[in-house]
Design a protein that fits this description.
8 strands, Ubiquitin-like (UB roll), two-stranded antiparallel sheet, nucleotide-binding, alpha+beta, Helix Hairpins, four-stranded mixed β-sheet
Length: about 325
């Protein structure tokens, strides 16, 4: 079950003289050091609410069925794509540290110490929620990675298909463990890459869509209209599913055409969960995805501008996206 009462939990930051143990230092991507002391055990002169929070924390930690070595399996999962990122082990202190710091933290059996994913590579896994299984002997860190999770540079640590190995034992290839939606996205990306090579014969439907923006947009409008008709004309549910599949496929082709990922869409949706419609619209100019698109458009158009126009356009983009302007001069 999810730890619902930890959703709004802020890191318990106190001075080093107040904290009994567990001081950890994280370094962010901009090189700054984030030294924080997270209160896991008793601290001096704590207010009543902190004591109550510690009591609830200890109750959760006590509920985990740690093995004879005090460990439990800890799995990191992408909060947006659902991809399994990695698997490690956690002890009581590692789980408590993860709850407080919101960074996926594990226990190294070989080094007998805690380690936080990203403390060396800076590819942290930012934890949004934590789940225990029904037996309470395994843990899921549901979070958003800052970069590739695997030490090999792969997006996840799971990229070896057993079935592929059985069917083609002589062929070594990597294939991420993807769900249906992301398998489709991977295929679309492959079709786009194939367009860079000389084409022979008649192109596939996907390639035709990738090459013809007008055709692609007309198909999206057509399929969306047919989807709405299944509701308006009270058609069978199977028709709705079929038309929705068509809409989703064509919209994912458009994302591929724009160089965007479906995971980006899910991240935007997740950001809207706790917002009203008005709040969401007012915050769109600061959305990271919109900022990336804005900067990409500016970059694509910059060659058509004079140097003075380029500086003005860049300043306008920065002002609209809350990104600090560079102090360096342009040449």
């Amino acid at each position: 079950m999810a730890f619902a009462h930890f959703h709004g939990l802020q890191s318990l930051q106190i001075t080093s003289r107040e904290c009994i143990f567990n001081t950890r230092s994280f370094h962010t991507r901009n090189g700054t050091s984030n030294n924080r002391c997270y209160a896991i055990k008793a601290c001096i002169n704590k207010p009543d609410d902190s004591i109550h929070l510690e009591s609830k924390l200890n109750s959760v930690l006590d509920s985990v069925k740690w093995d004879e070595k005090g460990l439990a399996v800890a799995i990191a999962q992408n909060v947006d794509s659902g991809a399994i990122l990695m698997q490690g082990f956690a002890n009581r202190e590692a789980l408590a540290t993860t709850i407080a710091s919101k960074k996926a933290t594990f226990y190294s059996r070989s080094r007998s110490t805690l380690w936080t994913k990203g403390e060396t590579s800076l590819n942290f896994i930012n934890v949004h929620d934590i789940f225990l299984d029904c037996d309470r002997d395994s843990i899921i860190y549901l979070g958003k990675p800052d970069g590739p999770t695997c030490h090999t540079g792969a997006e996840t640590c799971y990229y070896t298909s057993v079935f592929d190995s059985l069917n083609e034992p002589q062929v070594e290839k990597s294939k991420l463990a993807l769900t249906t939606l992301y398998s489709l996205e991977s295929t679309l990306a492959q079709r786009k890459e194939e367009l860079l090579a000389p084409q022979q014969g008649k192109p596939s439907w996907t390639k035709r869509l990738l090459l013809d923006d007008k055709l692609l947009c007309s198909k999206i409008r057509e399929e969306a209209d047919e989807l709405c008709r299944t509701l308006e004309e009270n058609e069978d549910g199977s028709r709705t599913l079929s038309e929705m599949s068509d809409v989703l496929y064509h919209e994912m082709v458009l994302l591929t055409r724009r160089g965007l990922k479906f995971e980006d869409v899910l991240e935007v949706l997740r950001c809207r969960f706790t917002q009203s419609g008005i709040e969401e619209k007012n915050s769109r100019k600061t959305c990271p995805i919109n900022t990336l698109i804005l900067l990409q458009q500016n970059f694509e158009n910059v060659q058509a501008l004079t140097p003075d126009q380029a500086v003005a356009a860049d300043g306008a983009a920065i002002a609209g996206s809350n990104i600090p302007a560079s102090s360096g001069s342009r040449k």
